[in-house]
């Protein structure tokens, strides 16, 4: 572990320290070890390379006196290379190349310059031009390579993102295919149930059996309608999803009395909210599904239990109430007794900021037969996810009397 950390530190320091050491060695080889002006400016130029990545232009300009007075090459060439990698402006690089050629071409002191020595001046000018062109060319090459590597990385990320989108599209297509198969299989079975119920409804003389067959037939028809709607949503893609909302009417709070009446449970319904308030359709639909799932669970796990369903508005200043006690009565009588009070609470509902739904059942009847109904164990999980997606909460727990309570709150802003 320590070796790995030391190796990383050395790899980080090497690009900074090695150029400085090369420039110092160049200064010592050219000017010797005696401390004079030439050695001083050469060493300062070498030391300036420590800051070449942060201030490439200033460092390059700081190395020019070392080239002009101390006749060193490595420091200004490294500085020009760094400038080409980090600040590759054409005008800037052209001006810096001219400065390096000038500092290399003219001798120190300037009085030693002989204009008539054409051959030597030409050789020095060519040497200075190559000295300035080489680091610029190498720096631009390195920068181009870095940009190419960055483009390749972006392309790789883009291709991965494209592969993920393609995989999601394949999953969506497969889900649509499964939805069609589900529709074909389930619709066939439900249609047979509806036909059998219709046959019983016509052939039987028992009033109770005829009423049960009528309920089964109505439930079968509604199941087919909702199944068609859900399959349409699954098959909808992109902009068609909005159109899919109109494939079938969505349930809201107005449907709750009918749902409770057809549940065949001993239910008391206390509805404190007028359905259809502006901007609450999504919340009402979530409340309906919460009650529907809770009643289904009661039929499975607590047959014969007394149930109370309560739907209330949540006012801004309301504190979270404790879970209330259970009640008794039949669904039909409760639904009928609600009409007068519901109209008087309309204005209060519209002023409310949320919706509270509570389904509480007592212990099951020991003499009742537990129906062998299938269950996937995902109902409450789905309800909780739906509530959270709308910005609400859902609580489900056992009560001290052996019953169970499901309590959800939804903000109207989610609708």
TrEMBL record:
Q: What is the lineage of its organism?
A: Bacteria, Bacillati, Actinomycetota, Actinomycetes, Kitasatosporales
Transmembrane region(s): 12-33, 57-81, 93-110
Question: Which reaction is recorded as catalysed by this protein?
Answer: ATP + protein L-histidine = ADP + protein N-phospho-L-histidine
As recorded in UniProt, its EC number(s) are: 2.7.13.3
Please state what the protein is called: histidine kinase
Could you tell me the superkingdom of the organism this chain comes from? Bacteria
Q: What class of enzyme is it?
A: transferase
Matching SUPFAM superfamilies = ATPase domain of HSP90 chaperone/DNA topoisomerase II/histidine kinase
Q: Does the keyword Mitochondrion apply?
A: no
Q: List the Gene Ontology MF annotations in alphabetical order.
A: kinase activity
Q: Which organism encodes this protein?
A: Streptomyces nigrescens
Keyword check for Ion transport: no
Enumerate the UniProt keywords alphabetically.
ATP-binding, Kinase, Membrane, Nucleotide-binding, Phosphoprotein, Transferase, Transmembrane, Transmembrane helix, Two-component regulatory system
* Region spans: Disordered: 312-345
> One Pfam family this chain carries?
HisKA_3
Q: Which InterPro entries match?
A: HATPase_C_sf (IPR036890), Sensor_HK_TwoCompSys (IPR050482), Sig_transdc_His_kin_sub3_dim/P (IPR011712)
- Which residues does the UniProt record annotate as the domain Signal transduction histidine kinase subgroup 3 dimerisation and phosphoacceptor? 174-237
Q: Give the Low complexity compositional bias ranges.
A: 314-323
């Amino acid at each position: 572990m320590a070796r790995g950390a030391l190796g990383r530190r050395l790899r980080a320091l090497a690009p900074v320290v090695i150029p400085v050491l090369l420039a110092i060695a160049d200064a010592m080889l050219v000017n010797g070890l005696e401390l004079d002006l030439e050695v001083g400016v050469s060493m300062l130029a070498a030391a300036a390379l420590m800051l070449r990545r942060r201030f490439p232009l200033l460092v390059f300009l700081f190395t020019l006196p070392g080239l002009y007075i101390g006749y060193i090459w490595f420091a200004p060439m490294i500085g020009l290379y760094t400038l080409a990698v980090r600040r590759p402006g054409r005008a800037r690089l052209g001006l810096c190349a001219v400065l390096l050629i000038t500092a290399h071409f003219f001798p120190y002191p300037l009085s030693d310059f002989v204009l008539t020595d054409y051959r030597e001046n030409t050789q020095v000018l060519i040497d200075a031009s190559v000295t300035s062109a080489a680091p610029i060319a190498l720096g631009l090459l390195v920068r181009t390579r870095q940009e190419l590597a960055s483009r390749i990385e972006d392309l790789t990320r883009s291709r991965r993102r494209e592969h993920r989108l393609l995989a999601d599209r394949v999953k969506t297509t497969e889900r649509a295919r499964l939805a069609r198969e589900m529709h074909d299989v389930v619709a066939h079975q439900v249609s047979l149930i509806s036909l059998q119920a219709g046959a019983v409804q016509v052939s039987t003389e028992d009033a109770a059996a005829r009423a049960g067959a009528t309920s089964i037939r109505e439930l079968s028809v509604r199941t087919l309608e909702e199944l068609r709607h859900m399959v349409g949503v699954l098959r909808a893609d992109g902009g068609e999803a909005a159109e899919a909302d109109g494939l079938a009417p969505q349930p809201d709070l107005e449907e709750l009395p009918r749902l409770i009446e057809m549940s065949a449970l001993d239910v008391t319904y206390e509805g404190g909210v007028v359905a259809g308030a502006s901007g609450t359709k999504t919340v009402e639909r979530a409340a309906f599904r919460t009650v529907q799932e809770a009643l289904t669970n009661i039929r499975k796990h607590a047959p014969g239990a007394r149930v109370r369903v309560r739907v209330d508005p949540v006012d801004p200043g309301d504190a979270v109430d404790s879970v209330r006690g259970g009640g008794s009565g039949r669904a039909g009588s409760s639904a009928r007794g609600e009409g007068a009070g519901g109209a008087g609470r309309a204005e209060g509902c519209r002023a409310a900021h949320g919706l509270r739904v509570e389904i509480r059942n007592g212990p099951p009847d020991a003499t009742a037969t537990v129906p062998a109904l299938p269950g996937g164990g995902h109902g409450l999980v789905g309800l909780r996810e739906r509530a959270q997606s709308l910005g609400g909460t859902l609580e489900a727990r056992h009560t001290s009397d052996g019953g169970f309570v499901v309590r959800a709150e939804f903000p109207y802003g989610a609708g």
